[in-house]
Amino acid sequence: MGSDGQNWYLDLTYDQWVPLSVSGPRPAARYKHAAATVDGKLYIIGGSRNGRYLSDIQVFDLKSLTWSTIKLNSGVLPATSGHNMIMWENKLLFLAGHSKDVSDTVTVWFIDLQSYECGVIETFGKLPVARGGQSVTLFGSKLIMFGGEDRHRRLLNDVSVLDLETMSWSTVETTQTSPAPRFDHIAALHGGRYLLILGGCSHSIFFNDLHVLDLETMEWSQPQLQGYLVSPRAGHAGVTLGDNWYIVGGGDNRSGVPETLLLNMSKLVVSVLATVKGRDPLASEGLSVSSASLDGEKFLVAFGGYNGKYNNEVYVMRPKPRDVLHPKILQSPAAEAAAASVRAAYALTKREKLDLPEREDSNFKEVHVDSAQQNLSAEISALGEQKKVLESSIADVRAENANLRTNLDDFNATHADLSKELQSVQGQLISERSRCAKLEAQIGELQKMLESMKSIEEEVQALRREKSELERDMERASSVQKQGSGGAWKWITG
């Protein structure tokens, strides 16, 4: 999309990903980088490309739609992939990840966004083993690290906490069943108390399970998600806005995930928000998604990823405000008041019917009629509000149905393509079988020829022996002849 002025985002349609037309040069395409948004700017650090780790710091200005590179005034960041980054005070904290650094424990780096200086922060306590593909979640003034894969490819499912006030690490002992060891999963904090872990993979399995850690009791649970069935995935990205967790991309090493999901963390209900087609950058593994605030409104910003090729495009989405659209009807004060008014109106009308034959006071009857009318008006108003809410819900359901139809069409198209490919492969197999049969026949003929060659060779050997014996006989005969003729000559001349 174009950049008409610096308020381009105000014209975006809700819940749709839009690629941005970037001015000037772009950074190298990559995946498994770290991303964070600060003051309308997207910061990208490191990542991986063609098996090489990157160490550059790229900044995308969401107002001017331009990229720039940060040159540090002091310090050098290590080339790293599969790391995490969070904003703390005026610094970006950059930790863990795979690099050529031989450190045995997790290192925490900082980048000062004012002085552009960087360095290692000294940490204390029980430092976790070095790793990549872990999740790091900010919880008040603490970072909670879960899982990952160490540099010996050992999978992890431990929980470590870094207190940012004291820079001290501690290991958390949890109860109940922990998630299976994994890496390249995502994590989110809900209600200031619950840590949610979704998906990820081991060396042979891709997960689609949800695990929840109660940070007060340190107890794991595995609640079941409702709604859309989440497919197994790793390398996906997630960001939260209120009670909503937006989940983008990921894959299973065979194909990328085209759906952007919305997980309501209060209700544990999953729905499809948007769907992309084919090898779209948003259906990549190792992409990032962040939230940015522009003029007081929240936007999602996605970058990078790998889906057969490395990507460096920037996509934005303007998510529809959802907390207002889906109030809890049965628990809201307005709904309770409406229900109370309905009950009151019903009771009052019933009482009026009972009392009217016995009372002759016209003023008394008029007062009751007016009260009933007021209560009925309140009921109608409340029902009107509920109608609006239901219409909004119906519109959302229709939109989700449209997405499902699109998904079904895509599935049918993919099935048709796969069927054609299968037929082609079957045809190739038939021709290959025919060629193999011909080759086997030729091999049989060659074997017969080899067998006949053996008998011919034996005949040749016999002929050679006969020839040798004949030559020896001829030599003996010649020798006898010479001896006989010599004796006669001597007799004549003697």
From TrEMBL:
Keywords: Kelch repeat, Repeat
Pfam families to which the protein is assigned, alphabetical: ACBP4_C, Kelch_1, Kelch_KLHDC2_KLHL20_DRC7
Stretches assigned to the Acyl-CoA-binding domain: 377-477
Region: Disordered, residue numbers: 471-494
Protein name as catalogued: Acyl-CoA-binding domain-containing protein
